[in-house]
Amino acid sequence: MNWFNIEKLDQQTYIISENQHWEEFNSYYLIGDQYNLLIDCGIGIYNIKKVLTKIDNKKTKLLITHMHWDHIGNMDKFKEVYLSQKANHYFKNGVEESIDSIRKKVIRDVDKELLPTDFNLEQFHLETSNRGIEIEEGNIFEMGNRKIEVVSAPGHTDDHLCFYDLSNDYLFAGDLLYKGPLYLNSDNINLKKYLYSLNKILKKYNDMKCILSSHYDPIINIDYLKDIYKFILKLKDEGKYQKGSGLHKKGEYKIYL
Ligand SMILES: [Zn+2]
Question: Is residue 20 situated within a structural domain?
Fold first, then answer.
């Protein structure tokens, strides 16, 4: 069963997508001289580790952007898990969303024939553990051939991190940005922090080659981020950058507030 779609971004960066799931989730596998990194680990219906070892079987450290269920389904398969202090709180104590609600989303619209033969929804769970390793803004993973910097980027959630590949100028954006309508209307989104994070990233990493997002079409041009940022500033000027203000459209861009 080819649940995972594997695309090579360059010789040492792989995009591992779960396009048969409605979340169209993308994890990123970064090959290093000394060790590999996996950024987020997907839905958890299938074991992502099996496809990683076929690509390169060096030791792999798992980096978590944030503790939403669709990013953390395979956490228990990795010995070393790195995440923000706030994300680690959820790793230790469990995420806020109920397991019943998560289980429904995990199998929503998934053709039963695509599920592994031994898949048991009642046994599907997210790991809770004290073994998380906390990281923060400015920490760097030295992989030998490349350096990956930790970027604190709250807004979508309070625990959200992005990761910046200093050697290739890629931003691994998590749910900071994705193509298609941008949903800024859910409860745990903090609009002020979100705007601050966009501004910080645009200023700090203006040599960015591309943005790699966790959902849908993985590769996003930096101009897309600049346009969204400008659109939000315009909404803010007009007093519309507020939850409950509804759908806003500008050209191809749609923002729900
Ligand atoms: Zn999320």
Answer: yes
The answer as to whether 226 is a domain residue is no
Domain count, the chain: 1
The Å distance, Cα 180 to ligand 1 centre, comes to 15
> Average model confidence (pLDDT) for the chain?
96
Query: Is the whole-model pTM more than 0.70?
Result: yes
- What mean pLDDT do residues 134-162 have? 97
CATH number, domain with residue 75: 3.60.15.10
Where does the chain show beta strands of DSSP type E?
5-10, 13-18, 25-30, 36-39, 60-63, 81-83, 133-134, 140-142, 147-152, 161-165, 170-174, 182-183, 210-213, 219-220, 247-250, 253-256
Distance 156 CA to ligand 1 centre (A): 7
Domain, as residue range, for 14 = 5-181+189-221
Q: Are 224 and 177 in contact (CB under 8 A)?
A: yes
